[in-house]
Write a structure and sequence with these properties.
This protein has helices spanning 2-29, 45-61, 81-86, 100-107, 119-127, 174-180, 188-191, 206-215, 232-238, 255-261, 297-305, and strands at residues 222-226, 243-248, 265-268, 284-287. 37% of the residues lie in helices and 6% in strands. It is α/β, with parallel strands linked by helices. The termini are far apart. The radius of gyration is 31 Å and the shape is extended. The relative contact order is 0.09. Helix 2 (45-61) packs across helix 11 (297-305). This is S-adenosyl-L-methionine-dependent methyltransferase.
Length: 306
Amino acid sequence: MGFTMGLNLLLLMAMVATNILSLYHLSSTIQPKQPPSPLQQPVPDQLLQQLHTIRATINHLTRLQPTTTTTTTKPKSTIPSDLLLYSHISPIASSCHSHPDLLHRYMNYTPFAICPLDTELAEALILRGCHPLPRRRCFTKTPQKPTSQLPSNPFPSSLPDSAVVWTKYNCKSFTCLNRFNQYKGFNTTIADTTFMSYKSDLDLPIPQLLQISKAASSVIRLGVDIGGGTGAFAARMKLHNVTVVSTTMNLGAPYSEVVALRGLVPLHVPLQQRLPVFDGVVDLVRCGHAVNRWIPVTAMEFLFLM
């Protein structure tokens, strides 16, 4: 009996000694705690709130409800199931799933015939964040008498009326557009002097912009003009060997066609569209009158930081 108790006591002491040695070993091998890296720093609550507000604003811009002029009388049950499936494919469709009625009207056309003249319907979708694929099975209507030669000068003396399909516009010529507002960019004589001199203390004319670039030993070769209208800024920069693409919307006038007639590149996208441009490849971004005080501040921050 005494031998058994002594053996148990010896085993207990050996176990305790083993645990003490193990604890000592672990305490001696644990490295001091390193400070968290910048990537592990917690995100400030203010930044999280701003990101949440920006996301909510963009969701609001891309989820505009159809107006009474763009709604369809057809029940939603008539919308094809494959079209509804397409409307949920991201990121091509974006918010198309929120407006299946407009998308159905846009895609409801006769194959192998002339495409419907419904540019206002396409722009209604684009303004709601839905960018449908082009209609590949119909033929886009072209001008009946296209011009055989286009001017190489981005500031031609006049723009050819025959190069535009005027069906959906109130005006049927550039003369008509200039008569209503000669400062919209369709008057090439006035557009020739745009961006060349100060009109207010906030202006930065192109000569001064190029001078600043030269003084900073910085090269300007590529640029984006957001809300570029008829492409007057891109046309002027082209004369300085700078390539600028302009974002346009054909709201009431053929802005995209005029940019193309000047030998420039129009991008038919709204303000809430993220441009497919890689970081650090564009030297200059200009914002036209479209980016003004009527845009929510959070949406403007998203536009500048995207």
